[in-house]
UniProtKB/TrEMBL annotation:
GO MF terms, alphabetically ordered: hydrolase activity, acting on ester bonds
Signal peptide: 1-24
Keywords, alphabetical: Glycoprotein, Hydrolase, Signal
Regions that span the bilayer: none
Name assigned to this protein: GDSL-like lipase/acylhydrolase
Glycoprotein is among the record's keywords: yes
Family named by the database record: Belongs to the 'GDSL' lipolytic enzyme family.
InterPro entries (UniProt xref): GDSL, SGNH_hydro_sf, SGNH_plant_lipase-like
Gene3D superfamilies for this protein: SGNH hydrolase
């Protein structure tokens, strides 16, 4: 076909497309991912900033500890792989990062709100959500500078057009809730802070949007009352029929309700943004309801841990060597992590993460109900 005929065809296609209804959308493959969050989405950020995690973290897939809190891949890894993209390098990784298809700003122990106690003296990551936003804000002009300079570093950063086309993913909020539970406050008091936590979350999403982000994939929070972290530390909690701490899960549910409502409002406030709310709570909870169906046993017992009914003790972290009455004990993995839901008492195994990923990527748990492979879209209003 001659170039002139080609452009005629293009013109006709263009006319046909632009006459589509006003809410038409244009789907494309996400070329990059910018991720924000906490340990459920950390691919090695906290480990890069402070100290390496030890094996058996990473044993199943990587055969080395990458800084992920799991035996293998986490949900953000499956998301990247589903787009044919490499695993995300942590922003804080100074050794050999490759940011061509995205960056991971998530660090374990991050909160949405400013933390009142930070590592190494306290419990939380200093890189809470606003700092992650600021790191991203600074990243954009710095990549432009490097791109303009050329050379080897210019081959390791995203193309300029990726910032508007990328998928912006979020998994954060659990630590704001658990931080409350471990503080000297009641469940109801933690619950009452949720509207403020969610408002804070929204402010950060708006800030990231104002830098040109358009497609958002935002996870809600999981059933914290099913985690050994909660079950072992609050033994008198009322249990549901699956053995999960009922009221703690209700706090997760209230967070999720407020988040879903706030994102519905955000779609009105930011009409050009593609905002997907992703319910990870339901697929995670269904693992505890029906462990056998998914090939799991001992649903509430940590695979890598030590002590008690839930194989969990705050003082015996996965991969550490502890001293019990003068005997040194290595806190290692259970025999087959692939038959377990919970990895270390707070995080999920690769096998569980894969099942949750498979379910959320279909669109059955998202609002609006779009599958992951259509999450990058542009409204043509
Ligand atoms: C895993 O790593 C260990 C050393 O840490 C090595 O001996 C072993 O061969 C590795 N296994 C695989 C499958 O790469
Ligand atoms: C960085 O990642 C991209 C995409 O995976 C790859 O094509 C490129 O070779 C990588 N660069 C280096 C220096 O490894
Ligand atoms: C916890 O709260 C109770 C009641 O508000 C108070 O009496 C107590 O001193 C507090 N304990 C700590 C360790 O802050
Ligand atoms: C949390 O607060 C909401 C709104 O006041 C309420 O409906 C819900 O029952 C509360 N949940 C818990 C566990 O206190
Ligand atoms: C340590 O020894 C004490 C006294 O013999 C005993 O009561 C306790 O259960 C032991 N702790 C563990 C974790 O085995």
């Amino acid at each position: 076909m001659a170039p002139i005929e080609m452009s005629l065809v293009s013109l006709i296609v263009l006319i046909l497309c632009t006459s589509a209804p006003i809410s038409a959308t244009n789907f494309f493959d996400c070329p990059a991912i910018f991720n924000f969050g906490a340990s459920n989405a950390d691919t090695g950020g906290l480990a890069a900033a402070f100290q390496a995690l030890q094996l058996p973290n990473g044993e199943t897939f990587f055969n080395r500890s990458t800084g992920r809190f799991s035996d293998g891949r986490i949900i953000i890894d499956f998301i990247a792989q589903s787009f044919g993209l490499p695993f995300l390098s942590p922003y804080l990784n100074s050794l050999g990062p490759n940011f061509t298809h995205g960056v991971n700003f998530a660090t374990a122990a991050s909160t949405i709100k400013i933390p009142n106690s930070i590592i190494p003296n306290g419990m939380f990551s200093p890189f809470y959500l606003r700092i992650q936003y600021i790191q991203f804000r600074d990243f954009i002009p710095r990549t432009k500078f490097i791109r303009d300079q050329g050379g080897v570093f210019a081959t390791l950063i995203p193309k300029e057009e990726y910032f508007s086309k990328a998928l912006y993913t979020f998994d954060i909020g659990q630590n704001d809730l658990t931080g409350g539970f471990f503080g000297n406050v009641t469940i109801q008091q933690v619950n009452a802070t949720i509207p403020d936590i969610v408002n804070n979350f929204i402010v950060n999403i708006k800030n990231i949007h104002s830098l040109g982000a358009r497609s958002f994939w935002i996870h809600n929070t999981g059933p914290i009352g099913c985690l050994p972290l909660i079950l072992a530390n609050f033994p008198s909690a009322i249990k549901d029929s699956y053995g999960c701490a009922k009221q703690y899960n209700e706090v997760s549910q209230y967070f999720n309700l407020k988040l879903k409502e706030a994102l519905a409002q955000l779609r009105v406030d930011l009409p050009l943004a593609a905002i997907t709310y992703v319910d990870v709570y339901s697929p995670k909870y269904s693992l505890f309801q029906n462990p056998k169906k998914y090939g799991f046993e001992l649903p509430l017992v940590a695979c890598c841990g030590y002590g008690g009914e839930y194989n969990y003790d705050n003082r015996a972290r996965c991969g550490e060597t502890i001293n019990i009455n003068g005997t040194r004990i290595f806190v290692g993995s259970c025999k087959s992590p692939s038959t377990r839901i919970i990895w270390d008492g707070t995080h999920y195994t690769e096998a569980a993460n894969k099942i949750v990923f498979d379910q959320i990527s279909t669109g059955a748990f998202t609002d609006p109900p779009i599958p992951l492979n259509r999450a990058c879209y542009r409204k043509l209003t």
